[in-house]
Amino acid sequence: MKIAIDAMGGDHAPREIVRGVEKAAKDFTDAAFTLYGNEKDIQQYLTSHERIEIVHTTEVIGADDEPVRAVRRKKEASMVKMAQAVADGQADACISAGNTGALMASGLFIVGRIKGVERPALAPTLPTIDGKGFVMLDLGANVDAKPEHLLQYAYMGKIYAENVRKIENPRVALLNIGSEQNKGNDLTKKTYDLLKKANVNFTGNIEARELLEGHADVVVTDGFTGNVVLKAIEGTAASLFSMLKKTMTKSVKNKLAAGIIKGDLLELKDQMDYTEYGGACLFGLESPVIKAHGSSNANAVYHAIRQAFDIVKNDVTGTIKANITEQNG
């Protein structure tokens, strides 16, 4: 198995990207890795070349670059070269922590969509209180969506949950403003009817406040709503831990208490860290394209690689292709 990685994407590139790859190379001995980026910058952090290759690139797509224009004009960018390697069959999957819009554009224009998939979906696995997590899609690949798109999201999420997360008959829910069938806008009402007839374990609507309670294994929504929810979860978690830290350090008594429960607090923080589940996969493309978080450290990069490895190993893309073909008759 060959995995292509954009070594220049993300806030801590290439240092944390390289460290994450080296960690993965030790654990996934039947995988080979190609790092795309400035060879000199990468080499200063690379301690082992075992199954790790560097392809020198002269350009980088930055966070402020306009996604589509950057992909079309920066042909020598690390992200573009990485995606091209997948399209040419030189790699089985690719990963980047760089510009999200540019990675989606690279996926669409270079890797290409699966025939029959109308809109690819960005799908991370988010944490739950019980530690099992759930797949949510779409979280920003498409601002607008039709009921038929959300139906495809449900099938793709179900396939991923079954084959990679190893959940038997995963529960599929529709994000809505209420649990009743008649709640929501035109999109959610029509999607509800489609999901009710579909060959998925549809459990009905789910409200945003219930997402982290573990009531569903797959949650579908449009990209605008999904991205808002994701940012709300991220912001709430960060603010909560910031408030907790401030409270725990404001007096000697609190500092002593914090010292006693420090291990438990760190465990709680890890439990709510969704990067432990990997990156956000762009489902519906001809090959796996994974978006790691922009602030990814080596551990987050490692888990994104583990995710890519599992997706390729379990042929998730092939299963999605077969399912879409079946649904289209």
From TrEMBL:
Cellular localisation: Cytoplasm
Gene3D superfamilies: Isopropylmalate Dehydrogenase (3.40.718.10)
Quaternary structure and partners: Homodimer. Probably interacts with PlsY.
Source species: Siminovitchia thermophila
Pfam families the UniProt entry points to: FA_synthesis
Molecular-function GO terms, alphabetical: glycerol-3-phosphate O-acyltransferase activity
Similarity remark: Belongs to the PlsX family.
Key words, A-Z: Acyltransferase, Cytoplasm, Lipid biosynthesis, Lipid metabolism, Phospholipid biosynthesis, Phospholipid metabolism, Transferase
Keyword Aminoacyl-tRNA synthetase included in the entry's annotation: no
Protein name as it appears in the record: Phosphate acyltransferase
InterPro entries tied to this protein: FA_synthesis, Phospholipid_synth_PlsX-like
EC number: 2.3.1.274
Primary role: Catalyzes the reversible formation of acyl-phosphate (acyl-PO(4)) from acyl-[acyl-carrier-protein] (acyl-ACP). This enzyme utilizes acyl-ACP as fatty acyl donor, but not acyl-CoA.
Catalytic activity: a fatty acyl-[ACP] + phosphate = an acyl phosphate + holo-[ACP]
